[in-house]
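Chain X:
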Amino acid sequence: MLPNTGKLAGCTVFITGASRGIGKAIALKAAKDGANIVIAAKTAQAHPKLPGTIYTAAEEIKAAGGKALPCIVDVRDEEQISSAVEKAVEKFGAYTIAKYGMSMCVLGMAEEFKGEIAVNALWPKTAIHTAAMDMLGGSGIESQCRKVDIIADAAYCIFKKPKSFTGNFIIDENILKEEGIKNFDVYAITPGHPLLPDFFLDEQPAIVTKKADSYGAVPELKEEKMQLPPKPRSGAVEETFRIVKDSLSDDVVKATQAIYQFELSGEDGGTWFLDLKSKGGNVGYGEPSDQADVVMSMSTDDFVKMFSGKLKPTMAFMSGKLKIKGNMALAIKLEKLMNQMNSKL
């Protein structure tokens, strides 16, 4: 873990989403230096499924040695953002550091505020264990994740740099290596276990899959299946699977080695499968003859959009439109395969 240096003492940090997860971890890291933390988040009352509120986070920040200003903020509401900034200025004089979820703005803002305010984007190399990851990834996903502490430490490294350090897109592990950190197992939920690459970074899923298989990282799916009799199907889903089938080859099967099951809701929905383990590959209606490695649940409309390139699987997953059970590394493999098929769909 990266030790605190006290450099942020007296600094004011405006953090969106600071009531839990990554935002709170960054807040607590800065608080240990004696920083002032503006907690800008939506949760003012306890959520039945998600831990923490802006007020419980404020108490933790104070206990860690910082000062806290909890503000109810929905980042989609400009008035709430302006109000929070005004309260921050009134209480702490100004804020010197901010954490927002706006990576696309980095280059423009870095140029606009050059010499005055540094603007950088920070991204994790691996999946980070948060309440959102539990909801989207399902049971067992935490063993493939790192703790939020790695993002907090990486953010702390950025906070210590001068204003001339701006306009950068930074990977957490890379900047920590520059700080001399060598043991990254301390950040793992399950030290030594294969880690899931972050959804938005271009990693090599084949390597991850090989490692995950050796650890038995694929959550168990149901053993016994009732085979549904094939039905005559028609519509966009059936046409999508027809095109996918025409695109299959032994090379695709060899490169993928996975069976995907799709639970689709809506018109032309039901259970479908894509077998990329059997020779030549296969698709069809109903459950696959062998156990699926990945089960994906979504609407038929989103399924068609996803396979035609109009909806990115990572965005569907992160927004809750796509639910995934099973081997996440193999799910990522399917996304790369879809990118190759988009021109035909």
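Chain Y:
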Amino acid sequence: METTSEENQEQSQEKKGCFECCIKCLGGVPYASLVATILCFSGVALFCGCGHVALTGTISILENHFSKITSDHAMLTDVIQLMQYVIYGIASFFFLYGIILLAEGFYTTSAVKELHSEFKTTICGRCISGMFVFLTYILGIAWLGVFGFSAVPVFLFYNMWSTCAAMRSPVANFTNVDSICVDVRQYGIIPWNATPGKACGSTLGDICNTSEFYLSYHLYIVACAGAGATVIALLIYMMATTYNFAVLKFKSREDCCTKF
């Protein structure tokens, strides 16, 4: 009986030790950086994937309905292709940058330093952490611009969609439907000498009913939402990296004090 009770006590102590170890490990997870990384990956994936396909659909719509002469929209085609290549670079960069920031969050969490008492800060480590703070702030400001820029095609497609919806509305009373037009030349997308440059009446309604228009419009909305999610993720990264840098500064002062 005594042996059984001792075994039970040993098992309970082992379970307690495993539980405490799990709690310490969970305490060492930088949840802010983890949430920001997931949100950043999701936002960048939506922005890059949907934006790339939407840009391809936009070229097709322009070539088939608004600018049938290739030379009129040659510059726009080159710009869109350049933007698609930039999208590849953005996706690759943020995949690596998110992993680096997540790793930096793990190594600067206070709970990790409690697990590893030999943890010491160095000038190089503090400089790297400060560099991440500065770079994250710059990227946050840049992505605010990207978010605003991604709302522009949503606005343009919404104007076209709302015009088509107004023509189909039974409440609307138009004497001449062909007088209702959407002229994309006024937005500076294509030059003024592009032909036809605008779509009116039933032609405009046919454009709105195409799968290319419907898909591109909704993909631009999703891409804009992805850019907004990336901005939120970078804001979380800003707070996390600033906190990590402050922790490193505080730890360096502790190290200096313990030397004397």
